[in-house]
Amino acid sequence: MLSDGDQVRNLLGTYCERLDQGDFDGVGALFADGRLATEDGTELASGAEEVAAFYRAGTLDHDGSPRTKHLVVDTVLVAADDERSLTARSSYVVYQAVTGILPLQPIITGRYVDTFERADDGWRWSERRFSVDQVGDLSQHLARPR
């Protein structure tokens, strides 16, 4: 049986896997009951369809994949007093390589603050707030400025 922390870390890892595979519907499914927001709480998308559309519209496709590797690291978990919610603070770095165009390199780093709610069958995303710390060459990643 996985601990609560393991379940949340698995959600963070699944997000990275799906995003790197270009599975935007799968990313959206992770946020079926949640929302994406800026660091100050401004909502960007809510629910599976909006979240999938947000990533699909903003990410360049290179033959079916964004050609990225998302890493979520240094995760700190804080449980709420009611044990029905949990916050995860993490750092992220995104690497990208596009054959003949962009050699492997970090393209962006930042921080996530994720809130999860306990459901009968495990943890669910409630909210993801993200911020950007450093920006590299995003010319092969972003389809439009965010």
Counting structural domains, the number is 1
Q: Please work out how many helical segments DSSP would assign.
A: 3
Q: How many β-strand runs? A: 6
Could you give a short account of the major beta sheet? 6 strands, mixed
How far the N terminus sits from the C terminus, by CA atoms, comes to 39 Å
The structure class reads: alpha+beta
**Which segments are poorly predicted (pLDDT under 50) over 5 or more consecutive residues?**
none
Task: Spell out the blueprint of helices and strands.
Layout: H1 4-20, H2 24-30, E1 35-38, E2 43-46, H3 47-58, E3 68-79, E4 85-98, E5 102-119, E6 122-135
Parallel strand pairs: 1-6
Antiparallel strand pairs: 1-2, 3-4, 4-5, 5-6
Helix pairs in contact: 1-2, 2-3
Structure description:
- The protein is an alpha+beta fold and 146 residues long.
- It has a single domain, classed as Nuclear Transport Factor 2, Chain: A (Roll), CATH 3.10.450.
- 25% of the residues lie in helices and 45% in strands.
- The protein has helices at 4-20, 24-30, 47-58; strands at residues 35-38, 43-46, 68-79, 85-98, 102-119, 122-135.
- The chain has a six-stranded mixed sheet.
- The longest helix has 17 residues, at 4-20.
- The model has no long low-confidence stretch (mean pLDDT 96).
